[in-house]
Structures are given as structure tokens and as C-alpha cells.
Amino acid sequence: MATIQDVAKKAGLSRTTVSRVINEHPYVTEEKKRLVTQAMQELNYVPNSSARRLRRQQTETIAVYVPRITNPFFSHLVEVMEKEAARKGYQLILCQTRYKKEQERNFLELLKTKQVDGLILTSIENDWSEFEPYLSFGPIVVCNEYSDSAQVPSVYLNQIEGSYLGTKHLIDQGYTKIGYCTGNHKSSRVSKDRKIGFLQALDEAGIMMKEEWFFYNAYSVQDGFAAFKKLSELDDKPQAVFTGSDEVAAGIAKAAFDAGWKVPEDLAIIGFDNQPLAALMDLTTVEQPIDTIAKQAMNLMVEAIQAKKPLSRKEVILPFQLIKRSST
Amino acid sequence: MATIQDVAKKAGLSRTTVSRVINEHPYVTEEKKRLVTQAMQELNYVPNSSARRLRRQQTETIAVYVPRITNPFFSHLVEVMEKEAARKGYQLILCQTRYKKEQERNFLELLKTKQVDGLILTSIENDWSEFEPYLSFGPIVVCNEYSDSAQVPSVYLNQIEGSYLGTKHLIDQGYTKIGYCTGNHKSSRVSKDRKIGFLQALDEAGIMMKEEWFFYNAYSVQDGFAAFKKLSELDDKPQAVFTGSDEVAAGIAKAAFDAGWKVPEDLAIIGFDNQPLAALMDLTTVEQPIDTIAKQAMNLMVEAIQAKKPLSRKEVILPFQLIKRSST
DNA sequence: CGAATTCATGAAATCGTTTTCATAATCAGA
DNA sequence: TCTGATTATGAAAACGATTTCATGAATTCG
Fold first, then answer.
1. Looking at CA atoms only, how far is residue B81 from chain A in angstroms?
2. Which fold has domain B59-157+290-320?
3. Rounded-to-integer distance, Cα B240 and Cα B173, Å
4. What DSSP line would sit under A59-123, residue for residue?
5. Which residue from A171, A63, A165 is spatially nearest to A121, judged by alpha carbons?
6. Whether the Cβ atoms of residue B46 and residue A113 lie closer than 8 Å to each other
7. Sequence ranges of chain B with CATH classification 1.10.260.40
8. Would you say the C-alpha torsion A259, A263, A268, A271 has a positive or negative sign?
9. Architecture of A4-47 per CATH?
10. pLDDT, block means (10 residues), chain B with 328 residues
11. Domain spanning B159-287: which superfamily?
């Protein structure tokens, strides 16, 4: 492996000048620039990035936290982020927290040990106080999830509004017995707010909710199957169900279909996210502008890294959209 | 930021001893070990990974190439790889090539500039000769895709067998007019072999194929819609269609359903991958053992990095499985 | 008991860059 | 022509770890 020293020797110049050429500093004559470029080419030289990182104290790498990359919502988020990051000369390190507090904390070391310039969180398992101390090591940006105590920029949607929008739609369609089937993840603000919005819509319409119409821990298609099974065994069944994701909605729809139920006549279903799956299953759903969330979060991050200033609290709140299909 | 020097001073010892404690070298008395540990704690010291990388000449980071992370096949692959890598103390850098030759080549710099210890390719756009020169910078492992000229380990499935298996199944069900709807990506060996296996099955059964029953560039649900539209406008329509992915199959199934067709009576459909989507849409499909592919590829990579020996050609070929559902 | 190991530590070299500082040479303005 | 800025270059000091080499002390062995 050729080093900058080798190039310098070959070109008959100093390391400094070579470095200047590499980094496009001014004050290098065309003549020397040519010499250096040629020497670099002949030696097949490439700057060693570890050395550069050490000296520059920056890594041009950003860590992105997701629970699991196979969740389409998060893979979409990551796809856009990676694209945006690459465009700006940054790499992405993928951190799957698997909904585990400890996993999430482990990855924090990346920031502390200077392996990444910053952290983007798309989900939050731990209390914000766990993150707080790491802010001195580099910027953190929150997106999708949010926390009132987080003193960093957050790009998110007002999930109260989102679930209100979806629930209101069900109510407007005339349903009065409405089930609620979501992950209801304890540490998630998104979960909490969704529930608030849901209840708020019911409340405004003067509609009652029954304890047995809540179905929790539903994340996947499989969970949707299970939820339907429970639902179908109730004496007093809901006429419609609000879900936390298109996967769950799709699972319920499929199970209902297999059981000979008609959607929406026997059971109306509303999904969340508007993924390709929703179009496929003809599910009404609440759309989240994933592309925009991802881009904005990444932009804030790169800005923060380059400004080298600590980030302050800042909220970017984006709007939802209802996509009406035949499941409601 | 505290450095190793600060710790050494605080503990009244040399950098060397501190380093020994950090790296668990033998030959340090318990007494000094305690002193160092305490000093590290008090100073909130963490080793700087850039410095460590520079000295050690390794990064504990692996780059994974995928076309797009939103493709469920690849996100599944990456999920398992990340898990496996984390378990072994490695990080993953995500590289989305977006099916572009140039993007793919750009990411090669990561290896050359020593930002990663190795490369795992799950898709290949460029000719192998483009990768060849980079082998001197670190190990490369191919998985899913494969190339005869690649002198590195490859973990893959014999796609000729896979599509043969699926096509044979359609033939066994009595279909004689069979369409073929895949990506048919030019640079992909997978694509080529799938077609070979398909034609082979037809050939063995003495079945004729019509040019108009080939539908190419189909990757997504959306593409499935389009393919069905074309198919349905033919005078002589196929009775069954072999597809390259569950998404495409699902798209066709949905479009067919919307058009009032019955599956499989009016059109039989077989997918590929056995993703959650396939269960949802009740699609017969050819299953690929994604978990195993991912794990094996990652193991080979870590082994290669740690052995520090150049990798030689080696093939790990895994088996397919047919999942029969109601779409055929 | 002397020689050969093994254990324990530190000084200094090293990894490959970028940055600071110093020094000339050139140029512009009075 | 002198002064002060601008341009062009290199020597040497960082960046923060690990590793080599040297050296003594303690232990084992014949």
C-alpha cells in the first residue's frame, strides 16, 4: 500500500504539498499539481481513511437506529436516508435495536468511540436520560419517534392527529363499535399518542369503547391473524378495527376473508403507513410522508455535523393524509 | 475528551500498561489493572476508534451491497447479516447500488481506502473484472448472486433448479400455456439461470413457449399490475404464469382479481421467495433459505477477515423448497 | 547456586494523514 | 526602492492509539 510519503518521494515534493493537492487547498502551482497527480496514479495511491479520520476528528459516517430493517416502514426510511447521505458524502451504519433497551444502549458506544459523527434515531426504547450524556460526543437527531424531554431536533408527525384522522373516518362511515389493534409499545410516544387520538375521536362522537376491543402487541401480518382470531371469538364483536400498521391490517383482512367474512360489510379495517401492501389488499390507510421525514432528518444531521454546533430542540411536524380504499 | 495519556497520568503508569489493560493482555498485575480501570472510569475514558483503526489496520466494519433495501428479499438478508455481524463485534455499512453500475463501483472505494475490512455482494451489476483488482485490499464474498469468474467464496442457490422446480410444479398441475414474468436483469446470473431452468422444464415436457408470454422488467407489485394488463390483452392468453418474486406475483394476482378473474382457475400464479406477502395472498411460491444464506455469507466473511488470508473460490449451494398454496 | 524462563513495566517507534509554523519568493502599492 | 501582502513550499508537530524493544524482577530448573 502506497502512502502519502511514497507519493511525495516519487513526485520529489513534500507530504504537505501532496496533502494540499488531495484536499484541493489553494497555493499549489499547476506544475506540482500535475506531478503529484501523476505520482498518485502511478502508485495507485488512495488516502488511508483511518489516518484521515484520526487527524480530522471526523468519520463521515452516520449511525441510523431502527428496530428491524425488515419492517417496511423502517426500510423505506433507511432507503431514503442512505440515498441522501451518499449524495452528501456520508455513509450509513445500520443499527438494529430489535426493540431491546440494551441493544440500543450498546450502539451508543459508536458515537462515544468516534466511529460515527452522529446518530439518527427512528425509534426509542430507553428513557431520554440514557441518551442525554452522549450529546457531548456528537449530534443526535430524532425522527418518527419523539420525546418531550429530548433537547434535539425531531422530525415527526403528530400521531394524535394521525389516529384521530383514521378513527374519525371510521366514525364518519357510520361505525360505532370500533376495535383498536396496535403494538402499544410501552416506551413509544408514537404508540401513546395514537391511542390518545383514537380515544379522542371516539369521545367527540360520544362512542363507547369496550376493554375487550383492544388488541395489543400487534406488529406483523402474523399478529393480524391472531388478532382476528381473538376478535372473531367475542360475543360482542366490533364492526370496524383501527390498526397500527398496514401489515396488521392486512393480516386481519386476510384472516377475515379466510373465515368467510366480507370486508368492510362484516368488518371494516383501516391500516397505517400506506405501503405497497395496502394498495394490494385494497386497504384504507393513513399515509405518512416517509420520504420527507427521512430527507429532513438527514439534512438536519448533516447540517449539525458540518456546523459543529450542538443541536438545540427543534420540531419539524409533517402532515398525514387519508387514503380511502375499499376496506372501509 | 480524555486520551490514553490522561489515563496513564492519572493512574501513575505508562500508556503501554493502560493499553494492555484495555486489550486484556496478560502480564499486568491485578493492582495496576485496578488502578487503570478506576482512572478510566473517573475520566470517562473510551478508546478512540480512529486511532485504534489506524494502528491496527482494521476497521471491524463490513460493507454490504444491496440494490435497494426496500426490496423485502434484501432487507431480510441484511437483517440477518447485521444480527450476525453484531454478535461477532462487527458493524455493517449499507450500500445501495440502485441497480446502477456506477453506484456499485463508487462503493468499492470503501475497501480501497480502508474504511471497511471486507465486502459482501448480494447483487452484482458490473463485470467481475471490475472487482478483481480490489481483492488485494480485502476479502470479498458473494451471496445470492454468483459469477463463474469470481475467484471468491459464493453462497447461493442453483437458480436453474429453483425455477425448474416452480415451473415443473405448474406443468404437473396440468398447465401447458405458461407465461414468464421476471426482472430479467441483464447483468444478473440469477436472472439468466432462472430462465434456463424455466425453459428446461418446458422443454422436458415438450411444451411450447410463445414470445408474447415473456414479460420483463418486473420487480414490484406495480410491475405486476402492468404485466397483468399486457397479459390480459393478448388474444392467446397463458393459463399460468411463473414470476421472479412474490411482489410481482401478488401484483398480478391482485390485478387479476380486480378484473374479475379467478385464481387459479382463470390464471395460476407462482411466486418466488416465500415472503409474508405470499402467505397473505395465498400464493404458491419457491422458497429461498434467506437466513441460511445470510449467516453463511457473514461467517465466511468474518473468517476471512480474521484469517487474513486471501479467499479462494468456494461454493456453498443451498436447496430450494416449494411452498404450495392456493394460487396454483 | 547460576542459568534460563517467565512476568511486569515503560520508552520510543509506528500507523498515515492534516495542520501549524516558518521561510522564501513574488507581487502590488506608495 | 522599500514595505507589506500574497503565493508557494517544506519541516515538524499533532491526532491517539498499539506494538516493538529493552530492562529488571521474580520464578523455575538442573
1. 11
2. Rossmann fold (3.40.50)
3. 10
4. -SEEEEEES-TTSHHHHHHHHHHHHHHHHTT-EEEEEE-TT-HHHHHHHTHHHHTTS-SEEEESS
5. A63
6. yes
7. 4-47
8. positive
9. Orthogonal Bundle (1.10)
10. 93 94 92 94 94 95 97 97 95 96 94 94 95 93 93 95 97 97 93 96 96 95 96 96 97 95 96 94 96 96 85 90 96
11. Response regulator (3.40.50.2300)
All CATH 3.40.50.2300 domain ranges of chain B, comma separated, are 59-157+290-320, 159-287
- Across the A:B interface, residue pairs with CB atoms under 8 Å apart total 116
Q: What percent of chain A has pLDDT over 70?
A: 100
Q: Which residue of A has its CA nearest to B62?
A: A93
Strand boundaries in chain B, DSSP class E: 61-66, 91-96, 118-121, 140-143, 153-157, 178-181, 214-215, 240-243, 268-273, 284-287, 314-318, 321-323
- What confidence score (pLDDT) does residue B157 get? 96
**Residue B3: CB less than 7 A from any atom in strand D:** yes
pLDDT, position B312: 84
Residue B209, burial from CB neighbour count under 10 angstroms (0-12, 13-18, 19+): middle
- Which amino acid is located at A128 in the chain? W
Number of CB atoms found within 10 A of residue B185's CB: 20
Strand D contact nucleotides, protein CB < 7 Å: 7-20
In 3-state terms, chain B is what percent helix, strand and coil (to 5)? 50, 15, 35
Identify the burial level of B257 via C-beta atoms within 10 angstroms of its C-beta, where 0-12 means exposed, 13-18 middle and 19 or more buried. Answer: middle
Instruction: Decide if A208 touches B, using CB distance below 8 A.
Output: no
**Nucleic chain C contacts, Cβ below 7 Å:** A 1, 3-5, 15-16, 19-20, 22-23, 45-48, 51-52, 54-56; B 12-17, 20, 26-29, 31-32, 51, 54-55, 57
Mean pLDDT, rounded, for A135-155: 93
Q: What is the pLDDT of residue A177?
A: 97
At residue B157, what are phi and psi to the nearest 5 degrees?
-115, 145
For residue A6, give the nucleotide whose C1' atom is nearest its CA. C16
Domain A59-157+290-318 homologous superfamily, CATH? Response regulator (3.40.50.2300)
User: Are the CB atoms for B166 and B209 separated by under 8 Å?
Assistant: no
Verify whether the Cβ–Cβ distance B96 to A114 is below 8 Å. Answer: no
What's the Å distance between residue B51 CA and nucleotide D20 C1'? 18
User: Angle at CA A245, nearest 5°, toward A121 and A324?
Assistant: 125
Interface residue A86 vs chain B (CB under 8 A): yes
Taking the Cβ of residue B240 and every Cβ of chain A, the question of whether any pair is shorter than 8 Å is answered with no
Nearest nt to A19, CA vs C1'? C18
Q: For residue B123, give how far its alpha carbon lies from the nearest alpha carbon of chain A (Å).
A: 16
Residues in chain B closer than 8 A to A83 (CB atoms): 96, 98
Q: Is B41 on the interface with A (CB under 8 A)?
A: no
